[in-house]
Amino acid sequence: QQQVKQSPQSLIVQKGGISIINCAYENTAFDYFPWYQQFPGKGPALLIAIRPDVSEKKEGRFTISFNKSAKQFSLHIMDSQPGDSATYFCAASMVPSNTGNQFYFGTGTSLTVIP
Amino acid sequence: GAGVSQSPRYKVAKRGQDVALRCDPISGHVSLFWYQQALGQGPEFLTYFQNEAQLDKSGLPSDRFFAERPEGSVSTLKIQRTQQEDSAVYLCASSLMAQRNSPLHFGNGTRLTVT
Asked: Quick one: pLDDT band at residue A95, thresholds 50, 70, 90?
């Protein structure tokens, strides 16, 4: 089953607006939550990541908000720009067992920023 | 180049053919992952190497899938007797260390189409 649930599937935002993408998880063993950005024909690229010991992390126009009790986290893109148009994936990983570490990805959100 | 390199970029195979997909990780990266990304979906974990050791192959969908990394650098994902459901983008990712918060660097993938 899907370990990380992501919504919405697609999002259209006006230039300068705020884009918000949400993710939820069930497995409380997850303790690292990265967000990836993927452009067509390219592999995903790490955007920003958070550990559950903080509730918010900001890097430039990108902010992750984390709610440990609700097992939810979200990506906020402030002052959205047309160049932000891409597919965004949330992901989660847990303390590695002796078999290594594995990342679980959400199903992705296709963001379109209209000029 | 400094990034993860995958070849071929595109592969068309007839059903029943064997294929081999190559990944050149970033030099010195300990961890190497293979993911399968179906159209419009997030990457799904296939297998994980730490140096030359395959520590986790729980995501390989069948015994037709085989991966190796014999010298701890280049990796090959082999699919035998390809089926139409194998059509997807196969992504390789590497990270410098084995820790879960070591950033994943993805290649641009190999798009496999089975006809």
From this structure: low
